[in-house]
């Protein structure tokens, strides 16, 4: 059952073949057996959960089920929830429970979804490994699939630890970040959909490492109200699901204008369904040559080439295109990100909410102590850099220049789409999921610059991009590619993604059998 | 002797300096909810009861621009003769302060709502009767958030924060350095306040903090560049503004005259001592690290309804601000009203200032046009008697117990010399008490008719002269102002019921004897 998609689950529950409670129980079982992965930082109170389940059951009984009725979902801990703490992976907010729900939370719940918990992340979404949060690192669920088989079967899943995964300490594979908890949660089957956030690739990168679908929608299509910001001008709530079709179901449920977010589109959103029989001959796929950069693994390159070939064979027009400003993206992103971080983090002063440390005799000392102890090194260094860039004497040299470069990057997309390209096909990660030991031997900043190279351009331009798992690497880990389309082209983007998905027949992770005893297996 | 020398030196030195003042006026926008949130804005609500999640800067909250505040800003900008920017933008201005929850204020630094205004105001000297029209330039008008309030309890060593004011919409109006002294700046602010109140964009209650002024002050020698300026913050009455500016000018001149240098700093004004003092915390030069506000799209205005693009969905069309429609809400401005009183009815500038400020110009016009009153007498009665009558009772003329037709009758009687100016005041009060009686019945009952019998006046003059021989001697020695004093004494003896001009003539005749 853990391998169910939203589409299948809804179908079975409508037909009465599966109950809301059974589905949730199944997810919860996996959640409990995979605690070692450190995917969740908070879980919905059992009483509240059973109330919600009851309501969904009733909806099915009364044939009033909505589009996500009874579907277990999770939220990255950057989305505000009024019934659970929202820590954003930071000591600063460890005991903070917001008095309101993010619009994404409200809309999924209005559509019947069951929120089961909040997922782990890098502190304030700053990172690409999900290693730099106050709740500790997230492990990739594929560790279960690629580690020596003998060990997996003999261990009781309830006390799985790094040791019982039979690896040397630090030899496990990371989930990627910053929405690593969300990607791992969906990949493991502990929920059927999860909301991450994507500022520079934070949804797509972990989705690619964990072998699930990760969508960064067009900027402004999904409300950011209640999403604790990293970079307001690039942040987008990200949707993580097992399949492309599931992604469209969730997107349809939550997209559109929100009065609480002035940057959301005012045009009314038109829900769409993924078309299966598409005429590829009308499709023009662009292969941006600048995405073939240093560090791209042979396996990813081969997958990229093979996929392009397949599309061409199926009738699509595939051409190489140039997006000359791609290489400037990372530096530009760094400046803009730090500036907005410096600004956005100014509110964490220990006065109205969050951690308060230090002497109450002096306001300045209180600020300094609270902020020093509440933020990790990564956050503090970005604040420092951002404040430097924003100084009057530096503003023109750094911030304004970065904004101009951002415009150039954005124009690259405009030009390539204006030239007739419908969709761009690119890699999303340089390799399959790296091992912790390797990843952690460089600092956060170095890893972000290296890992975000392929994902940040879409955030700069605000265009939609989706990461789809297509094959396994020689290590048996997922390999994914990225499709990028023009603004508000989600419908066609997901249609092409769906075609690739059907062609690839990706072997999704199935942890149903993980550490189950015989009795449970028979059921 | 020494004091006299010092004084003359001082006067001599003072004349070599000229002072330059520019103002930043923060006017709270009169609106039910805040600039970017739905929280209320009533003054005096209980502590922290008007605070939305956004106002407390809770993580994940976003600003949503209040259309009413934009309209108020546009209306004000139009009233002040500004050029409206059809696209304006919001910026973040960063500084750490306990009553600024987000750590930044959302303002309009780079592309404000409006620029280049021009305001005509009436300068009134507080020491002489000098009154004249002047003009000041405005640099810009921007929308921004107000901050919260910090209250310091020094006994318990606590700082308390009230966020009710945090996020209330402000219009910051920045003037060019066009003022030369306390009276000049104060006259401007009073007139500006009248404009805002009359178009309903700010309630103008300075005591409640609805209108606050920061003054930038410097002195220089004529022909030289402007001197180093100081900024006096948070002046919240016209009186303290005038006093603070005058004090600061004198302080700077004294520093420069004794060879010192003026420090560029922020100062506050202490009304009790009448002095400005340097503010402790804000001495450091702050770098506000301005940055565009990423959560608000540019504010786009449209000149006409037809210019709103068709691509905008119909659900959003009512939310846009259209200049033509805002212009339609414009009231006649105080300066236009003053001008009309002067040109159409020959009212003096000072009288038109007073009538318009007291909102009595419409009444005046009704008296003249509908009731046929003489403009001179009507302006005299309304300005001197009726204004005080309403003020004492905290009434407007619309809810006054004196009907306009009754007032017109009184003006006519005054004009015809049948009642004196001071009798009019008594008449207004007594008429209010005896509502059923006609005006002439009230006059009869209280014996308020103008004295026609010159022998009675003669007798009063004789009486006053016999009681004040010293004053008469003084007059004859050249103290001519004794004439007015004696005339006033005669008027008082006659209970104000005589024609003051007649009394003056009779006293001066008698003094020739």
Question: Would you kindly provide a brief summary of this structure?
Answer:
The complex is a heterodimer of chains A (523) and B (513). Chain A is of the alpha/beta class. Chain A is 40% helix and 12% strand.
Provide tags for this entry.
heterodimer, A: 523 residues, alpha/beta, Amidase signature (AS) enzymes, 2 domains, 11-stranded mixed sheet, 11 strands, B: 513 residues, alpha+beta, Arc Repressor Mutant, subunit A, 9-stranded mixed sheet, 16 helices, globular
Task: Please tell me about this protein's structure.
The complex is a heterodimer of chains A (523) and B (513). Chain A has 523 residues and is of the alpha/beta class. Chain A folds into 2 domains: 6-282 and 421-522, Amidase signature (AS) enzymes, CATH 3.90.1300; 327-406, no CATH class. In chain A, 40% of the residues lie in helices and 12% in strands. Chain A contains 19 helices and 11 strands. Chain A has helices at residues 6-15, 20-33, 46-61, 103-110, 143-146, 149-154, 180-188, 204-210, 244-254, 298-313, 329-344, 363-374, 377-390, 392-418, 436-439, 444-451, 456-461, 490-504, 518-522, and strands spanning 40-43, 72-76, 114-119, 193-198, 213-216, 236-241, 284-288, 317-321, 423-427, 465-472, 478-484. Chain A has an 11-stranded mixed β-sheet with strand order 1-3-2-4-6-5-10-11-9-7-8, sandwiched between helices. In chain A, helix 9 (244-254) runs antiparallel to helix 18 (490-504). Chain A starts with 5 loop residues before the first helix and ends with a helix. Mean pLDDT of chain A is 92; it is low at 149-164 and 516-523. The model of chain B is unreliable at 1-12 (pLDDT under 50). Chain B contains 16 helices and 17 strands. Chain B has 3 domains: 16-292, no CATH class; 334-446; 454-512, Arc Repressor Mutant, subunit A (Orthogonal Bundle). A 9-stranded mixed β-sheet of chain B has the order 2-6-7-10-1-11-12-13-14. Chain B has a 3-stranded mixed β-sheet with strand order 3-16-17. A 3-stranded antiparallel β-sheet of chain B has the order 5-4-15, with no helix packed on it. In chain B, helix 4 links the parallel strand 12 and strand 13. Helices cover 39% and strands 19% of the residues of chain B. Chain B is globular. With 513 residues, chain B is of the alpha+beta class. Chain B has helices spanning 2-14, 67-79, 182-199, 238-257, 323-327, 334-345, 349-357, 361-369, 375-393, 404-415, 421-433, 439-446, 454-467, 469-476, 482-493, 500-512; strands at 18-28, 83-84, 87-88, 91-94, 104-107, 114-124, 131-145, 149-153, 158-162, 169-175, 211-220, 230-235, 266-270, 275-278, 291-292, 299-302, 321-322.
